[in-house]
Specification:
By secondary structure, the chain is of the alpha/beta class. It has helices spanning 2-11, 32-45, 60-70, 132-144, 162-168, and strands at residues 13-15, 19-21, 53-57, 77-80, 92-99, 104-111, 120-128, 147-157, 173-182, 189-191. It starts with a helix and ends with a strand. 33% of the residues are buried.
Length: 192
């Protein structure tokens, strides 16, 4: 999606350690108009798929998932929580994932009442690098017995293995911007 690639070039920053900082518009300050255009593009890419719900992970996936949901007939958005709280009651699906950006492992939790066997789910997230977060969501979906119709990613680091592994496993992965390389020294970002 050229609009997203252009925005990454304009406002993204490459940090040492293969970190792409896009907090000016994607995962700290949110450009809602851009999110809406991203949702429209995922709706085009997944046209013909029956989607009952969108599943994402807190926190950065929530905004883009909510904007996307409007383009899929205002389906509900469920987000996996990263911490247990007194507000999480009833039976839950739980797994653990390792976050590259946070450099730690954390639980991922969804109340069982929000994922029902046989529902058709679209997974959405802001980044895909090594695939740990997405694999955690896939594990939760397996426990719930839902059908994964596809995976929508805003920014994929194509030089890391996550996207390839998910596609090799048979999932339809639609990334709106695939970074083929980036250099912290020069600040350059190339797209596939």
């Amino acid at each position: 999606m050229k609009e997203l690639e252009d925005r990454i070039r304009q406002d993204g920053t490459v940090k040492p350690g293969n970190v792409l900082k896009v907090d000016a518009f994607l995962n700290h300050q949110c450009d809602v108009e851009l999110f809406d255009h991203m949702g429209a593009e995922w709706a085009r890419l997944f046209a013909g798929k029956h989607i009952d719900k969108i599943l994402t992970i807190e926190a950065s996936g929530i905004g883009i998932a909510c904007c996307a949901a409007r383009h899929f007939g205002n389906v509900p958005v469920v987000f996996a929580k990263k911490t247990q709280s007194i507000n999480l009651d009833g039976e839950q699906y739980v797994t653990r994932i390792y976050s590259f950006t946070k450099q730690r492992e954390f639980p991922v939790i969804v109340a069982k009442r929000f994922l029902n066997a046989g529902e058709h789910i679209l997974l959405i997230d802001d980044f895909l690098a090594n695939g740990k977060a997405m694999n955690g969501l896939i594990e939760l979906c397996g426990k719930a017995g839902v059908v994964i119709e596809g995976i929508g990613i805003a920014v994929e680091k194509g030089f890391q293995s996550g996207g390839r592994e998910l596609r090799d496993a048979g999932y339809e992965v639609e990334s709106l911007a695939i970074v083929s390389s980036m250099d912290a020294g020069t600040g350059t970002i190339e797209f596939a």
